[in-house]
Design brief:
Radius of gyration: 21 Å
Structural class: mainly alpha
Oligomer: single chain
Strand order of the largest sheet: 1-8
Number of strands: 10
Largest sheet: 2 strands, antiparallel
Helix content: 40-55%
Strand content: 5-15%
Shape: globular
Order of helices and strands: HHHEHHHHEEHHHHHHEHEEHEHEEHHE
Length: 441
């Protein structure tokens, strides 16, 4: 594919490249926020400055409660592996052994994080996981994290019984729903939302890994992302090795674009924003957008017109890869390029605190689909408003952006405050009902 095509938004390759940038996420989210503040939104109004300040105070208070000793870690899947006060990273490293090189250790950490993140869509209110070793019972994200940790260490995602501590193409492609259900303790009385969708996503991952040996190696391991990004520095990991957060995200978005089941390929939309004949476009995986949805008010050049990108799971994965790179001695820079994650807890915080106000009360009681414009706009407003909220939280806590990047604001932070508000108001349920297939929410 020519460089001209990838830079031309009138060409599907160029449009896909533009929509895979967090700059596009931020610009379009900010546009929809400004539009809502002007009273032009069909779905929402925006609360005044006092509401945003109240939300910032709630986040700051939650942060101080959770991390009173001043060190706030990144918002990542690794926090869920710490659920119940158990240091599972130490357990994993003990299983890996001291003889492993920093590069192989990083591959294993990334294998685990990537598979676990893809299993991290909302579990639903009725599912739980009981950890045999600790006897503790976990639900929601913590439960999914702990369950996926033990599934990984048991070798569920590996095709090689001699190497259980890995995920590889053959192991993932062979995964069946019943085996995942058993690992996650799913039963009629313990249902997990989107179980079949999660299994399909992991099988698609296996196919994508196998189809791209230049990125994931002949064995097709997610952890070979590390080699793809750090490879130019040589077989060892020199102290000068560094990557940017967006370089990690870009490789994730490009190499994993084909795993997403949503039929929203960039060439399904004409330049004027109207549907093209056939609706879903060519089906070319190079043009698949994943977590990117239609919104009638969004404007952009060429084929990007009408699309609002988010890439929530891919960004959640990128946040979750920051530490494996760091542990291996690779500095990850420019964390500020990543956006807030537009999901139940962050977006729920803004609704429950009166910052985002649905115009119709009925919208809080009906069930929505991920691609409905109401949900697309709510998520966009969440991204833009959390960019405004973060500096307010830092000011209250007297922290600089270097001391408290957005990754730490989210962890401190917005996600936990959103969950706490939901618990007080509705017993933990989010303010909006969204039909989930286990791949976005």
């Amino acid at each position: 594919m020519s460089a001209d095509a990838t830079n031309d938004s009138a060409h599907p390759a160029g449009a896909a490249a533009l929509l895979r940038s967090t700059a596009a996420v931020r610009e379009r989210a900010a546009f929809l926020l400004a539009r809502a503040r002007r009273g032009e939104s069909q779905w929402f109004s925006i609360g005044d400055d006092d509401k945003l300040e109240d939300a910032a105070r709630a986040v700051a208070e939650t942060t101080l409660e959770r991390y009173p000793w001043n060190i706030i870690p990144y918002h990542s899947r690794w926090r869920h592996f710490e659920a119940g006060g158990v240091d599972r990273l130490t357990d994993l490293n003990a299983l890996i052994g001291d003889e492993a090189t920093p590069r192989e250790r990083a591959r294993i950490h990334i294998d685990l994080a990537l598979v676990s993140v893809l299993l991290d869509a909302g579990a639903g209110a009725d599912w739980h996981y009981t950890e045999t070793s600790s006897g503790q019972r976990f639900t929601r994200s913590e439960g999914l994290g702990v369950a996926s940790f033990h599934a990984f260490t048991s070798g569920l995602f590996s095709s090689d019984p001699e190497r259980p501590l890995q995920a590889d193409a053959a192991g993932l492609r062979a995964l069946i729903t019943d085996r995942l259900a058993a690992a996650f303790q799913v039963s009629d009385s313990n249902p997990l939302v989107g179980l079949a969708g999660r299994t399909t996503l992991l099988r698609r991952l296996g196919e994508a890994l196998q189809e791209q040996p230049e990125v994931f190696g002949e064995d097709g391991r997610p952890g070979k992302l590390f080699d793809a990004l750090v490879g130019p520095f040589g077989p060892a990991v020199p102290p000068t090795a560094e990557v940017t957060a967006h370089e990690i995200l870009s490789l994730v978005l490009i190499s994993l674009s084909r795993i997403w089941p949503a039929a929203n390929f960039v060439d399904s939309i004409a330049a004027d924003g109207s549907d093209m004949p056939g609706g879903i476009g060519s089906g070319n995986p190079d043009f698949a957008l994943g977590d990117c949805w239609r919104h009638s008010a969004v404007r952009g050049p060429g084929l990007t017109n009408g699309w609002m990108p988010f890439h929530k799971l891919s960004q959640w994965l990128t946040y979750s890869l920051l530490e494996p790179f760091d542990w291996a001695g690779v500095k990850v820079r420019k964390l500020e390029a990543l956006t807030a994650l537009p999901e139940y807890r962050n977006g729920g915080l803004l609704i429950d605190s009166g910052v985002i106000v649905p115009l119709s009360p009925a919208s809080l009681t009906r069930t929505w689909k991920v691609g409905d414009e109401f949900i697309v706009e709510w998520r966009a407003l969440t991204v833009a408003l959390l960019d405004e909220l973060a500096p307010r939280v830092r000011k209250i806590l007297d922290r600089s952006e270097d001391e408290m990047p957005l990754a730490c604001v989210l962890e401190g932070g917005t996600w936990a405050a959103g969950r706490a508000m939901a618990q007080r108001l509705r017993g933990g349920s989010p303010p909006l009902l969204i039909e989930s297939d286990g791949t976005v929410f």
